[in-house]
């Protein structure tokens, strides 16, 4: 693409560095900003700058937070004996939206992935082990995605927790509520049958 | 969506104001920036700020430019008797990419669209008429999109140029090169036949 302006070219280049945004989309976005009032762009630029510079991570669960300790970790209503281990903040938001969980979280910040050069030491695993050793936690719930990387990470942490007096569970995998059995994949359906729950318990969940 | 941080919420909100970017995508983009080195975000914010504040429009053709007069208008190699009328800067870039056009441009900045509240006075039409009156231009080539708004705009300008000694043409509409006739829509195919060109001329174009 040949640009008639260096400023434009630079803005389009920086915008196209974002994931899933190509040069054409970036140009469309920048031209949109040029048509909007100037403070639209100023606000966007300031908000991005602020979030990058001033963002804090909760010292206990590593969730994104404005304070030293996030609202969830600081809440007296939360069950401190239960810790749900997740990949990133979006998973915390997804679980919080269900209103079904009253324990704490531990955000790993990713999964072990040799392909992307992410090892155990790039993740918040050491602090998880430390929490387990302190003895306040009764159960860790693994809620990572069920990919090879997720499974590897689960297994690595499981091994690290070996010998400590703490329960370890993973979230249930199975057919989604409202899904038809005939369209489900075999692995999920197989797990659904293996990990069946007593009928009375399924009544309670509704 | 419930955010654990006001800074994050604000950045996601500002990002989701861009066209085609929803809250989920915005969150994904902001979290991506948080994982990147800080200067990635700083550069993006600065580039957006700079393009919005310091962008200039060429005083002759209204194309985006870093200087008072854009490179195309300033070039002595360009045919000053020919002006191609386009909607926005993306059209200039598209035509420049063909390397088939050596005249100047005139960027309207949009199309007449009563639905969106855009009238002739919101577009760079007055300066176009002024150029036509100065008499240096021999031909205007209309290259607006062939929608109702584009046709309306073409017709409005055509009426305004009435009585002036200047040729007016529009770019050819027809079946795209390499397209199969059987899949073409009737209107385009019909125009293709009505506006057929002498065979020798089509040889020269290749």
UniProtKB/TrEMBL annotation, chains A, B:
Residues annotated as domain Toprim: 81-176
Keyword DNA repair: yes
Zinc finger map (C4-type): 58-73
Tree of life domain: Bacteria
SMART domains: TOPRIM
Keywords: DNA damage, DNA recombination, DNA repair, Metal-binding, Zinc, Zinc-finger
Keyword DNA repair on entry: yes
Matches recorded under Pfam families: RecR_C, RecR_HhH, RecR_ZnF, Toprim_4
SUPFAM superfamilies assigned to the protein according to its UniProt record, in alphabetical order: Recombination protein RecR (SSF111304)
Reported function: May play a role in DNA repair. It seems to be involved in an RecBC-independent recombinational process of DNA repair. It may act with RecF and RecO.
Stated family: Belongs to the RecR family.
Record-given protein name: Recombination protein RecR
Originating species: Pricia mediterranea
Biological classification of the source: Bacteria, Pseudomonadati, Bacteroidota, Flavobacteriia, Flavobacteriales
């Amino acid at each position: 693409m040949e640009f008639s302006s260096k400023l434009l070219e630079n803005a389009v280049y920086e915008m196209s560095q974002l994931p899933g945004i190509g040069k054409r989309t970036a140009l469309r976005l920048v031209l949109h900003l040029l048509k909007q009032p100037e403070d639209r762009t100023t606000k966007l630029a300031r908000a991005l700058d602020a979030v990058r510079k001033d963002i804090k991570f909760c010292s206990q669960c590593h969730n994104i937070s404005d304070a030293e300790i996030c609202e969830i970790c600081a809440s007296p209503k939360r069950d401190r004996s239960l810790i749900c281990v997740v990949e990133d903040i979006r998973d915390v938001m997804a679980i919080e939206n269900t209103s079904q969980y009253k324990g704490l979280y531990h955000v790993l910040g990713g999964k072990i992935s040799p392909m992307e050069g992410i090892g155990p030491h790039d993740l918040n695993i050491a602090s998880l082990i430390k929490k387990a050793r302190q003895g306040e936690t009764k159960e860790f719930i693994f809620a990572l995605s069920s990919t090879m990387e997720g499974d590897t990470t689960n297994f690595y942490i499981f091994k690290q927790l070996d010998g400590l007096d703490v329960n370890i569970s993973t979230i249930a995998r199975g057919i989604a509520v409202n899904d038809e059995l005939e369209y489900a994949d075999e692995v999920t359906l197989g797990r659904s049958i293996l990990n069946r729950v007593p009928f009375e318990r399924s009544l309670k969940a509704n």
